[in-house]
Design goal:
The chain has about 325 residues and is an alpha/beta fold. The chain is about 35% helix and about 15% strand. It starts with about 35 loop residues before the first helix and ends in an 11-residue tail after the last helix. The strands form 2 sheets. The chain has an 8-stranded mixed sheet, with helices on both faces. Strands 3-4 form a two-stranded parallel sheet. It has a single domain (about 35-305), classed as Aldolase class I (TIM Barrel, Alpha-Beta Barrel), CATH 3.20.20. It is built from 11 helices and 10 strands. Strand 9, helix 10 and strand 10 form a beta-alpha-beta unit. Helix 4 packs parallel to helix 5 (about 130-145).
């Protein structure tokens, strides 16, 4: 599918909110705590698992864990990349593949009674397939334990290894998510070991390899120095790749050693991105300051199922 889109009636670049001092009120979240939060934390520890919620210092961890949902992170806690926005530990993994991890993770998903399970991983460039086989094993085991569980995977780019992409897609996830993270111009600064074009190839190949009902999904952060026009162009590229769901959220600096926030994007602008994205034919666009790929992922997918796929964007 090709889209010939000109930028029209686009939202203006709203005045930048100063990034010094306190965060704006729309970014405030409640502190983690509560009995369910403690139960989820204990379960993760007992099963010797990792979550992107904790490792990436997600601001929504309190809400999600209190609601007994978590995004499980496979293949250890050490990433072989050095993306400058991410709080996950970087370096050379100290261990090989943990072949028992899919079983432990599937059991944890069963214990939590998840209707919609989200599974991601660190980058494992030290492995020939990037760890794709572990994704596949987990998908199949979750299906065995809970056939009604909806499975969403959030994968790395596997260094462009399309065979690895196919391994995951053919295992039968309901949603195949791969984040582009930012606009192409900022890749050298934000994702120096990745390529925007490669991420597009991952999404296209996943769509071709998965079952017809499998939806694809991708997300970006804003507030890193991108322009409105660049965000809209990413939307166009994703629709050309027949991506079904898009998420857009505010970048938040996890530590002083990570990239600084260039501006806090206002809620009105997020709403405008959503309006434009739905007009382009995305089945769902989740766009807001605290939005992350897996935040309310089950609700995102429910909404996507209500819309027809592949509606071509017609400006006017």
């Amino acid at each position: 599918m090709e889209l010939n889109v000109t930028i029209f009636d686009q939202p203006p670049v709203l005045p930048s909110t100063e990034t010094r001092g306190p965060k704006p009120p729309w970014l405030k979240v409640r502190a983690p705590g509560g009995s369910n939060y403690r139960d989820v934390s204990k379960l993760i520890e007992e099963h010797r698992l990792h979550t992107v919620c904790a490792e990436a210092r997600c601001p929504n961890i309190g809400e999600c864990w209190e609601n007994r949902t978590a995004t499980f992170m496979l293949l250890g806690d050490t990433c072989t990349r050095g993306c400058r926005f991410c709080a996950v530990t970087k370096g050379k993994p100290s261990a090989g593949i943990d072949w028992d991890e899919p079983e432990r993770c599937a059991r944890a998903i069963q214990t939590l009674g998840l209707r919609h399970a989200v599974i991601t991983s660190v980058n494992r460039d030290d492995q020939p397939d990037g760890g794709a086989v572990i994704f596949a094993l987990l998908i199949r085991r979750v299906r065995e334990l809970g056939p009604e569980t909806r499975i969403e995977v959030l994968t790395p780019d596997f260094m462009g290894n399309l065979s690895a992409v196919r391994t995951v897609a053919e295992a039968g996830p309901d949603i195949f998510n791969h984040n582009t993270e930012t606009v192409p111009r900022l890749y050298p600064r934000v994702r120096p070991k990745a390529k925007f074009v490669q991420s597009m190839q991952v999404l296209r190949h996943a769509k071709q390899s998965g079952r017809p009902s499998m939806m694809t999904k991708s997300g970006i952060m804003v507030g890193l120095g991108e322009t409105v026009e660049e965000v809209i162009q990413v939307m166009v590229s994703l629709r050309e790749a027949e991506c079904d769901i898009m998420t857009i959220g505010q970048y938040l600096r996890p530590s002083p050693w990570h990239l600084p926030v260039q501006r806090y994007v206002r809620p009105e602008e997020f709403a405008e991105f959503k309006r434009i994205g739905l007009g382009m034919g995305f089945r769902h666009v989740e766009s807001g300051p605290l939005v992350r790929s897996s935040y309310h992922a089950h609700e995102q997918t429910d909404e996507a199922h209500k819309r027809e796929p592949n509606v071509v964007f017609a400006p006017g």
